[in-house]
Amino acid sequence: MFSPSRPHRDDVLIAVSGLLGGLVLWLLGLFMRTGYVLDDTRLALLPLVVMSALELLRRTSPRTALTIGTVALIGDQCTHGNLATVVMYTDLMYAAVLYGTPAAARRIPVVTFLITVAVTIGSLAWFRSPEALLIGIVTALVAFVPALTGVSVRNHRDAADTARLRADQTALLAGMDRTQAVTAERARMARELHDLVANHLSAIAIHSTAALSIDDPGTSRDALGVIRENSVDGLAEMRRLIGLLRAGSTDPEPVGAPTLASLDALIEQHRTNAESSGLTCTLEDTRSGDPELPAPVELAAYRIVQESLTNALKHAAPGPVTVRLGPAGRRLAVEVSSVLGERAGPRAPGSGAGLVGMRERVALLGGEFEAGPVPTTGDGTRIWRVRAELPVDEGEMRP
Known about the structure:
Blueprint: H1 9-28, H2 45-54, H3 62-76, H4 83-99, H5 102-127, H6 133-213, H7 217-245, H8 263-274, E1 279-285, H9 295-315, E2 319-328, E3 331-339, H10 353-365, E4 368-374, E5 383-391
Parallel strand pairs: 1-2
Antiparallel strand pairs: 2-3, 3-5, 4-5
């Protein structure tokens, strides 16, 4: 990097080298022409010094350097001439295209080409000799060829900058994708962990509280039986989840994800856990036959029922807990309703994570979810209902 107010060190090296080379040629008496306007050989040093000084501006002020350099080159043609002066001018032409503005990079090659053509035609018309073509060739070598070289180098440099920018953007997008993937996976693991253990831990909390608060050996024995059953089931579920997370290890293959076919066992377990709370659970499946559902829909529906039963065990008042499965157009409707109200006896605390997890599951599939109280029944009973509609057509599901 260099400051715009100071010449680049490479430019200083070019200026010094050009000046020294020109001085050596002048001392050796090697001039470019014998026909000249100004006879004093020392006058050839003036364009040389000016051109070498302009080399210091080739990056910071390329247009100014080229303009003054053109005047110096014309002046050099009136003297004995110095090859170093011409060579440095070609470098100024190259630098004006490479470091100048985009507009200058477009215009300078066109202008130098037109000048080359005009000089060639004018020389042929003036001298009327084939040797006049040499003047056009020299003009092209001094002006058009350096400009064309600058365009080529600038295009390659711009292409490299574009490729570097594209690579940086790709790396940034890849980093964002990795972050989103990790976040999504953590959210999925959080939902699975919550759904796996919440039901069992809620039953353990309620029955252990009952055993501690009711001084009755029979009640305590029954509560300890429920606690042991849920502890064993919860431990098995945790081992299954650990097996899933450690896929590819030497552990046995984990059990597959639960489906709606195992709802009967889930509801039976809920009946056992909720018996002391006065809850009765029933399943109403109005689906025709045994329709084939996509695996994500099966898992989401099962988890929604599981979490809704867990919430009923924590919060529902004594009464029926009804699980309904049925078609809703081209979707699967899952609905769980329970009695809303206060109940005596122990209850487990809730954090609201269950509703968040259910809503996330439904949103990931592109379905609809609602949870809350519904209008009371004829006898004044208030009902809490969880309802989800899940798309069963894979074309309607979100990717």
